[in-house]
């Protein structure tokens, strides 16, 4: 591939479109730093290798600073004899188009992703996947296009580069199909095994076969277990069958044994019955003898008891007589005392009655005196009360002036007299004495008219101070008037006083002041008298008011009546009724004394009687007890005798001799039966227990045998069921099928394993030979580099050694045995020059097939002028075989070289 | 006169695991053969069929196989008299106690007791086995004279090895038993190939072969005895369904394997033939690749093919360059050939000299195959 033209627009510093044309041999692009030389190489690389749709920060940074221009690059180139144009636009509306120049014009042959892929393939690159391409994905360009930053070489070139190299060189050296076979072997190897460790590859045929084998072996194991179990059960069954047979023969023997034991047991049961019968017979004989013996003993005991009772009865009867005599005498004394006590008590009662009568009589007398006294006092009180009533009546009926009234009347009289005295000197005076009686009325000093009657013979004077009116109807009217004020006043005052006095006297119904005085005194006297009478009445011995006294007297009369009735029945001596209370009191005292004596005597007699009565109940008890005992004993005697008679009657042997004989016979019978039973009992162990035990043992043995047989039969039938199931599930056939499958799978695994190993061996051998081959392929490159290095560095240099991937790793210096490491030992300049030559040589070698372009961006910067001159010659020589694009800041170093110079400054 | 079929060793339910995907089919083929035998019995109007042991391969044989055998025997009313052999001895829980077997028709009879059985003018003296192994002669009990001696034809039936091989045998049978027990015929089972010991003692062999090394299997015998004491007339009938063949072939004499291919083509019925090919001789790697191709081709034509190779690898006529493209492939071919021939290769291949010769040879084959594939 060679370049013709590169057009860039909107790319970093290239805002405007620029186009760069390349010389087919050598193009030297020069300009100062930062003039955009490397940017052009970047645009070229991205234009061919990066996908147009790639994005990200790094791609964004392609835009010219501060703009939103769309980066766009167009590369025109030739490859495989055809001319192409590839245009890519990144970021905004990204696109890629690939044209080819046919028949004088451009024709679009691919666009989009397809165009991307075609572009990558021109230089043997690899599709980058999602991101930007890396140097190792750029095929030949990794080796031939040395960017500014590629100071070092990788350890080996990428497969695309190697393929191109092989394709170029191998064609000359190898047959074409070798690598195809190698790939086939490698592919088959990798289908089966992993590259690194040679383990079966997951999902590969060997791995699958191994897994299938493991599965089938597991299945087979499972079925084999079933079959083994089947056979084990078969063996068990044989054992079980053998044991059952043995047990069955034992069963026969055991049944026979049981039969015999059963017969022996029947005999034993008969013996047992006999023995039990003998025992029953003996018990009955024994019981008979005991009964008989007990009855004979009973008769004897009853008669003996009756005799003892009779003797005791005699003794009791003898002790009863003295007790009865003693009881009789005690009862006589008690009776005598009783009679005497009766008489004394009667006397005591008589005395008591007489005293009661005397007391009644005494009370009667007291009541009479009381009644008399009450009557006298009542008479006197009645008189005084009459006097009191009279006095009170007088006081009530009459009007008696009070002391003040009396004093007021006396004061008025005195004032009137004073007034009259005044008038005598100063006032008017009318004196009238009519011939006949006539009625008149008088008014004095304007006072109201006062009616009066004038009578012949009685002169009347009226005094007034100012005016005095006297009217006598139908006769005349006299008016006297005075102008004297003093007189008037005196008249008025006199008239008022006379009126007051008159009113006062009139109100007490008296005519004069003296009468009024008398009345007052009489009132005083009446009050004094009334106080005296009340004093007298209070001093009288009255008990309550009259009604109380009357009631008291009534009660006293009733008591008297009752007492009189008592006395009438008491038949007191006639003369005692007339005795005074004092006499009666004396009589009472006498009686009380006698009664006390009689009472004392009575007490003495009662004590004596009690003493005499004390032993009597004890004697009576003793006598009664003895009598009861007598009665009991009598009954006992009767009972015992009856009992003896009954017993004798029961056994029908009434004689002692007969009884004795019967007893003896019974004893003999008991002994005989005892002996018979003892003989049978002694045989019990041998004839009963032992056969029974043997029967039990035989029976148990038989049962155990049967149980064991039935247990074995159960096991057997369980085994048979399992075997039947095994057969039903065709276990053996399945085992056969699985064995066949396992066998086939195993054979397949073995074959695949052997194939895998064989492929791996072939692959490893091929690899080894291929590596060796590559080393030999590197020969032309080495020859070229060695030659150029000798020219460039001089005779001190002996040759370069390449790795299997055709990168230089060692340099022989001076002597062929002195080896220097390119990385560690060469100077920076020498290494730079070596790398320059290697890339150039690779370009030249690759151009053997198709002409290639070598791009050297800013190389040989550390090379002295001498060597640079020699390098220039080498470049010129190489440019005949390969297109070279050189980018540099120092175009002077290359002046005179046969190539196209492009100045970046003019380009802009 | 009586006439009966003498057969033995049907080995029903045998696994044939080594036949791979043909195992199941091979088992069912034996039932086909069984039905063929019962049809033959019917056609030949025999009085009964006598199966001298190993009717079944194993006690664990499945009910489907039992069912098939019962069906085959029930195809005809000809009585089938069966002797338990060492593969199917009389034992509790064994094949003869399977429910399906016990439900068989009455004319199928198993002889489980060593005592005379009278059957249509014949006194049968069965010698049933009750275990898998024994040094005891199962025919020892047969009396030389009894109530049936005079008027009945005496036929013994046993399973074991005639004691003529001079080594420890399982169930040895006295070689003179027929004469000693005055038997008219002794029907034997156990050996899978037909064998006539004397005029009265026969192994019928298995009616359906079971292995490549069987000499003369695949028959049943039709036995006719005119009267007591008469010499039996024995006629063989081929009844097998499958044919087992072995072929020895020296490949060095015939590198193109033409004979082999021709031989298979000449087979009457390759699709029922099991073939074991034993390849010998010194061959080059091309030939080994060819044998593989041939084996693949024949496998498709035969019922079953088994190839055993005892081949010596020799260098080819020219050097590797003649067969492999120049470069790493040819170099690798040379190295592999050297190792396969027991030499140590020079240069790069030296470090692979200790590899397993089998693997090396296979690698050589694969490399060759790959070259042929690429180069066409």
Write up this protein:
- The complex is a heterodimer of chains A (908) and B (376).
- Chain A contains 21 helices and 20 strands.
- With 908 residues, chain A is of the alpha+beta class.
- In chain A, the strands form five sheets. Chain A has a six-stranded antiparallel β-sheet. Chain A has a five-stranded parallel β-sheet with strand order 8-18-19-3-20, sandwiched between helices. In chain A, strands 11-10-13-14 form a four-stranded antiparallel β-sheet.
- Helices cover 27% and strands 24% of the residues of chain B.
- In chain B, strands 4-3-2-1-13-14 form a six-stranded mixed β-sheet, with helices on one face. A six-stranded mixed β-sheet of chain B has the order 5-6-7-10-12-11, with no helix packed on it. A three-stranded parallel β-sheet of chain B has the order 15-16-17, with helices on one face.
- In chain B, helix 1 (23-43) packs parallel to helix 2, helix 6 packs across helix 9 (357-375) and helix 8 (328-340) packs antiparallel against helix 9 (357-375).
- Chain B is elongated and about 90 Å long.
- The chains are: A alpha+beta (908), B alpha/beta (376).
- At the A-B interface, helix 6, helix 7, helix 15 and helix 16 of A face helix 1, helix 2, helix 8 and helix 9 of B.
What are its keywords?
heterodimer, A: 908 residues, alpha+beta, 6-stranded antiparallel sheet, 5-stranded parallel sheet, 21 helices, 20 strands, 66% helix, flat, B: 376 residues, alpha/beta, 6-stranded mixed sheet, 27% helix, elongated
């Amino acid at each position: 591939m060679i370049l013709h033209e590169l057009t860039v627009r909107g790319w970093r510093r290239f805002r405007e479109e620029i186009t760069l044309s390349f010389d087919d041999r050598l193009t030297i692009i020069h300009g100062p730093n930062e003039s955009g030389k490397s940017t052009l190489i970047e645009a070229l690389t991205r234009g061919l290798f990066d996908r147009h749709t790639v994005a990200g920060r790094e791609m964004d940074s392609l835009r010219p600073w501060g703009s939103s221009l769309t980066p766009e690059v167009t590369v025109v180139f030739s490859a495989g004899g055809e001319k192409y144009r590839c245009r890519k636009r990144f970021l905004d509306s990204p696109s890629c188009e690939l044209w080819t120049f046919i028949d004088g014009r451009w024709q679009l042959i691919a666009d989009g992703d397809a165009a991307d892929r075609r572009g990558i393939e021109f230089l043997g690159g690899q599709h980058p996947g999602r991101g930007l391409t890396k140097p190792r994905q750029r095929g030949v360009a990794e080796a031939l296009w040395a960017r500014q930053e590629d100071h070092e070489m990788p350890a080996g070139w990428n497969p695309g580069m190697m393929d191109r190299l092989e394709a170029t060189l191998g064609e000359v050296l190898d047959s074409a199909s070798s690598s195809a076979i190698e790939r086939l072997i490698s592919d088959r190897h990798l289908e089966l095994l992993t590259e690194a460790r040679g383990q079966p590859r997951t999902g590969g045929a060997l791995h699958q076969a191994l897994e299938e084998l493991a599965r089938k072996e597991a299945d087979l194991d499972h079925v084999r277990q079933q079959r083994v179990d089947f056979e084990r059960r078969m063996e068990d069954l044989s054992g079980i069958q053998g044991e059952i047979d043995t047990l069955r023969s034992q069963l026969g023997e055991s049944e026979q044994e049981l039969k015999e034991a059963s017969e022996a047991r029947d005999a034993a049961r008969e013996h047992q019955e006999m023995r039990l019968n003998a025992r029953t017979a003996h018990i009955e004989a024994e019981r008979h003898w005991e009964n008989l013996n007990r009855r004979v003993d009973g008769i004897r005991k009853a008669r003996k008891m009756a005799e003892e009772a009779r003797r005791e009865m005699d003794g009791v009867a003898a002790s009863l007589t003295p007790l009865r005599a003693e009881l009789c005498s005690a009862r006589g004394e008690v009776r005598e005392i009783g009679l005497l006590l009766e008489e004394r008590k009667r006397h005591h009662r008589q005395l008591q009655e007489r005293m009661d009568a005397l007391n009644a009589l005494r009370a009667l007398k007291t009541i009479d005196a009381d009644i008399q006294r009450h009557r006298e006092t009542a008479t006197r009180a009645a008189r005084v009360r009459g006097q009191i009533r009279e006095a009170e009546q007088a006081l009530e009926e009459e009007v008696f002036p009070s002391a003040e009234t009396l004093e007021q009347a006396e004061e008025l009289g005195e004032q009137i007299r004073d007034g009259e005295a005044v008038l005598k000197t100063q006032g008017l005076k009318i004196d009238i004495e009519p011939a006949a009686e006539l009625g008149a009325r008088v008014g004095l000093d304007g006072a109201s008219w006062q009616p009066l009657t004038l009578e012949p013979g009685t002169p009347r004077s009226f005094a007034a101070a100012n005016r005095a009116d006297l009217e006598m109807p139908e006769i005349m009217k006299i008016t006297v008037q005075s102008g004297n004020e003093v007189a008037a006043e005196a008249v008025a005052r006199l008239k008022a006083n006379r009126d007051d006095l008159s009113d006062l006297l009139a109100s007490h119904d008296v005519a004069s002041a003296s009468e009024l005085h008398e009345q007052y005194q009489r009132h005083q006297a009446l009050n004094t008298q009334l106080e005296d009478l009340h004093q007298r009445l209070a001093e009288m011995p009255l008990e309550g008011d009259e009604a109380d006294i009357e009631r008291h007297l009534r009660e006293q009369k009733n008591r008297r009546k009752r007492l009189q009735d008592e006395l009438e029945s008491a038949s007191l001596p006639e003369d005692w009724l007339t005795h005074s209370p004092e006499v009666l009191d004396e009589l009472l005292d006498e009686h009380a004394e006698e009664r006390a004596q009689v009472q004392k005597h009575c007490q003495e007699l009662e004590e004596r009687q009690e003493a005499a009565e004390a032993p009597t109940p004890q004697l009576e008890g003793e006598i009664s007890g003895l009598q009861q005992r007598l009665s009991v004993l009598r009954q006992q005697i009767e009972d015992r005798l009856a009992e003896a008679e009954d017993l004798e009657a029961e056994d029908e042997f009434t004689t002692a001799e007969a009884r004795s004989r019967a007893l003896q016979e019974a004893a003999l019978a008991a002994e005989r039966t005892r002996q018979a039973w003892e003989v049978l009992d002694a045989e019990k162990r041998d004839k009963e227990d032992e056969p029974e035990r043997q029967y039990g043992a035989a029976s148990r043995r038989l049962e155990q045998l049967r149980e064991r047989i039935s247990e074995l039969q159960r096991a057997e039938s369980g085994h048979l069921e399992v075997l039947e199931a095994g057969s039903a599930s065709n276990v053996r056939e399945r085992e056969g099928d699985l064995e066949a499958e396992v066998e086939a799978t195993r054979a397949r695994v073995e074959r695949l394993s052997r194939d895998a190993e064989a492929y791996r061996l072939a692959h490893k051998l091929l690899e080894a030979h291929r590596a060796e081959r590559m080393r030999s392929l590197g020969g032309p490159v080495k020859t070229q580099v060695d030659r150029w290095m000798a020219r460039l560095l001089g005779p001190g240099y002996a040759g370069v050694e390449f790795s299997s991937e055709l990168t230089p790793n060692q340099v022989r210096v001076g002597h062929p045995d002195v080896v220097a490491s390119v990385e560690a030992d060469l100077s920076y300049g020498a290494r730079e020059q070596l790398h320059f030559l290697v890339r150039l040589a690779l370009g030249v070698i690759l151009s053997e097939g198709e002409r290639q372009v070598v791009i050297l961006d800013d190389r040989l910067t550390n090379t002295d002028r001498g060597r640079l001159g020699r390098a220039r010659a080498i470049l010129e020589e190489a440019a005949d075989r390969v297109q070279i694009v050189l980018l540099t800041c120092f175009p002077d170093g290359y002046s005179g070289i046969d190539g196209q110079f492009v100045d970046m400054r003019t380009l802009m | 006169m009586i006439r009966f079929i003498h057969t033995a060793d049907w080995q029903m339910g045998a696994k044939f695991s080594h036949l791979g995907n043909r195992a199941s089919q091979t088992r069912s083929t034996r039932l086909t053969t069984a039905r063929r035998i019962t049809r033959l019995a019917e056609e030949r109007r025999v009085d009964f069929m006598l199966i001298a042991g190993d009717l079944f391969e194993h006690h664990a044989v499945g009910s489907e196989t039992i069912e098939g055998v019962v069906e085959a025997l029930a195809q005809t009313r000809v009585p089938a008299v069966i002797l338990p052999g060492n593969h199917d001895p009389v034992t509790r829980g064994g094949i003869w106690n399977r429910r399906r077997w016990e439900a068989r028709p009455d004319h199928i009879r198993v002889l489980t007791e060593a005592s005379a059985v009278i059957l249509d003018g014949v006194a049968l003296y069965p010698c049933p086995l009750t275990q898998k192994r024994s040094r005891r002669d199962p025919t020892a009990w047969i009396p030389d004279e009894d109530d049936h001696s005079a008027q009945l034809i005496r036929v013994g039936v046993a399973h074991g090895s005639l004691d003529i091989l001079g080594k420890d045998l399982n169930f040895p049978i006295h070689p003179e038993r027929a004469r000693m027990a005055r038997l008219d015929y002794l029907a034997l089972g156990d050996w899978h190939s037909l064998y006539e010991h004397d005029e009265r003692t026969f192994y019928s062999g298995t009616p359906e072969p079971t292995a490549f090394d069987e000499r003369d299997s695949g028959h049943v015998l039709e036995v006719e005895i005119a009267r007591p004491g008469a010499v039996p007339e024995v006629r063989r009938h081929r009844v097998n369904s499958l044919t087992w063949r072995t072929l020895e072939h020296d490949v060095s004499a015939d590198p193109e394997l033409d004979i082999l291919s021709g031989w298979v083509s000449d087979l009457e019925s390759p699709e029922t033939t099991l073939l074991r090919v034993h390849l010998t001789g010194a061959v080059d790697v091309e030939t080994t690749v060819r044998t593989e191709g041939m084996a693949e081709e024949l496998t498709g034509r035969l019922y079953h093919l088994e190839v055993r190779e005892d081949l010596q690898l020799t260098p080819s006529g020219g050097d590797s360059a003649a067969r492999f493209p120049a470069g790493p492939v040819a170099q690798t071919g040379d190295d592999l050939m050297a190792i396969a021939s027991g030499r140590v290769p020079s240069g790069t291949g030296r470090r692979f000299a200790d590899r397993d010769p089998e693997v090396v040879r296979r690698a050589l084959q694969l490399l060759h195959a790959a070259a042929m594939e690429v180069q066409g």
